[in-house]
Write a structure and sequence with these properties.
Number of domains: 2
Oligomer: single chain
Membrane topology: Single-pass type II membrane protein
Protein name: Polypeptide N-acetylgalactosaminyltransferase
GO molecular function, one term: polypeptide N-acetylgalactosaminyltransferase activity
Keywords: Disulfide bond, Glycosyltransferase, Golgi apparatus, Lectin, Manganese, Membrane, Signal-anchor, Transferase, Transmembrane, Transmembrane helix
Main location: Golgi
Radius of gyration: 25 Å
Number of strands: 23
Distance between the termini: 50 Å
Shape: globular
Largest sheet: 8 strands, antiparallel
Length: 461
């Protein structure tokens, strides 16, 4: 992977090398006491986190062809130290840590003693977007690298794509750091960023044609419709030219979609760089609150619409047709759309085609075999295949068959507040009780949890 100088290393008076930083003293201030919940403070296992050394060895998860909001003390320290350890000194001018008015100002102040580290503390809670903009405004290097606080950089993670074209915004492959035991697990290199129609970020597998095209060069950059948002590199001048972040956005959430749309529609591009790997702790809960409630974060977008016009940005339709053509757009015939979910499992074609059975599989939020639509003509469709009741008796298997406009065997309706799918003209409901024995069936409608189904998006609810 190529590298390029971000800036020249400068002397730092009164600083200590990261190798000389007293980790034990720093972590000891907030150690989890016997009887305390290790997940309470950060929503990951702090006991296991505290056992890690700040410069722990991270497995190299790259292909064989290759030769941060403040919420926790040690993870912030890991991120800082591994940026310094895994980066050539001339590539890092400074590390700016933004403390978004955390409970203890000493958390950041102590880290500010490490070489090249500068800590900015907000005097009130500003949220992710305004905090990032404050850090970006303070930066003096020509290239910005945004990182969440709970990350670990891998070998040779900095590259030169932005230096070649300042309108490129690049992201690493994001490996997974387990929130319970902090095991570092390499992620697939066949994924792109995307979203569903609830505007939730998801990972999409590349199409078969896209994977085939990459066989000769598996480390080539991957054009991606969306970036996850927490980890990316961007030219500072271009970041400012495109309007930074929307300063009306509060706390957290949605900024990854907004900046991804804006980059593509306003002349730039997004890439995932396979030779760049950064681990990230994925948590199931936010470790912080939404002051006033999450419903208060909505704001006027008038200034962003004016900026879009000023920059001559392309319409969203252009983005859908040219950047993300794989995303199926709900049409006026759809009543409900997306995954058909039952607990943590989703209705899945299991890769079957005409006359094949359907089943349930762990929801992956990536569309594909789990993408369905309930249409106004009462068909449950996956592409050009429809759920078909071949034998209208309880216990009979559901089959996938080509959709036919007037076939009564393919007519379904939502009942009981859109929580069940009933075959029209019978009292038989879609049921998963036999899923492990070869496929889904229709059974007499009942209160069974095996008959509870929920579409990702109900367009008429």
């Amino acid at each position: 992977c190529e590298t390029f100088p971000l800036a020249i290393q400068l002397p730092f008076k009164g600083k200590v090398r990261w190798q000389d930083f007293d980790q034990d003293l720093y972590v000891g201030a907030t150690v989890v006491r016997p009887g305390q919940d290790p997940y309470a403070r950060n929503k990951f296992n702090q006991v296991e986190s505290d056992k890690l050394r700040m410069d722990r060895a991270v497995p190299d998860t790259r292909h064989d062809q290759y030769v941060v909001p403040l919420s926790t003390r040690l993870i912030w320290l890991h991120t800082t130290v591994l940026v310094l350890k895994k980066s050539p000194p001339q590539l890092v001018k400074e590390i700016i840590l933004v403390d978004d008015y955390s409970d203890n100002p000493e958390d950041g102040a102590l880290l500010g003693k490490i070489e090249k580290v500068r800590v900015l503390r907000n005097d009130r809670r500003e949220g992710l977007m305004r905090s990032r903009v404050r850090g970006a405004d303070a930066a003096t290097a020509p290239v910005l690298t945004f990182l969440d606080s709970h990350c670990e950089c891998n070998d040779h993670w900095l590259g030169g794509r932005v230096a070649e074209d300042k309108t490129r915004v690049v992201s690493p492959i994001i490996d997974v750091i387990n929130m319970d035991n902090f095991q570092y697990v390499g992620a697939s290199a066949d994924l792109k960023g995307g979203f569903d129609w609830n505007l939730v970020f998801k990972w999409d597998y590349m199409t078969l044609d896209q994977r085939r095209a990459r066989q000769g060069n598996p480390i080539a950059p991957i054009k991606t419709p969306m970036i996850a948002g927490g980890l990316f590199v961007m030219d500072k001048e271009y970041f400012e030219q495109l309007g930074k972040y929307d300063m009306m956005m509060d706390v957290w959430g949605g900024e990854n979609l907004e900046i991804s749309f804006r980059v593509w529609q306003c002349g730039g591009s997004l890439e995932i760089i396979p030779c760049s790997r950064v681990g990230h702790v994925f948590r199931k809960q936010h470790p912080y609150t939404f002051p006033g409630g999450s419903g208060t974060v909505f704001a006027s977008i008038q200034s962003r619409l004016e900026m879009k016009k000023r920059l001559g940005c392309k319409p969203f339709k252009w983005y859908l047709e040219n950047v993300y053509p794989e995303l199926r757009v709900p049409d006026h015939q759809d009543i409900a759309f997306g995954a058909l979910q039952q607990g943590g499992n989703c209705l899945d074609t299991l890769g079957h085609f005409t006359d094949g059975v359907v089943g349930v599989y762990e929801c992956h939020n990536a569309g594909g075999n789990q993408e369905w639509a309930l249409t106004k003509d009462k068909s449950v469709k996956h592409m050009d295949l429809c759920l078909t009741v071949v034998d209208r008796t309880a216990g009979s298997l559901i089959r996938l068959q080509g959709c036919r406009e007037n076939d009564s065997r393919q007519k379904w309706e939502q009942i009981e507040s859109n929580s069940k799918l009933r075959h029209v003209g019978s009292n038989l409901c879609l049921d998963s009780r036999s899923a492990r024995m070869g496929g889904l069936t229709v059974e007499v409608c009942s209160l069974s949890l095996n008959q509870q189904w929920k579409f990702t998006l109900n367009l008429q609810s």
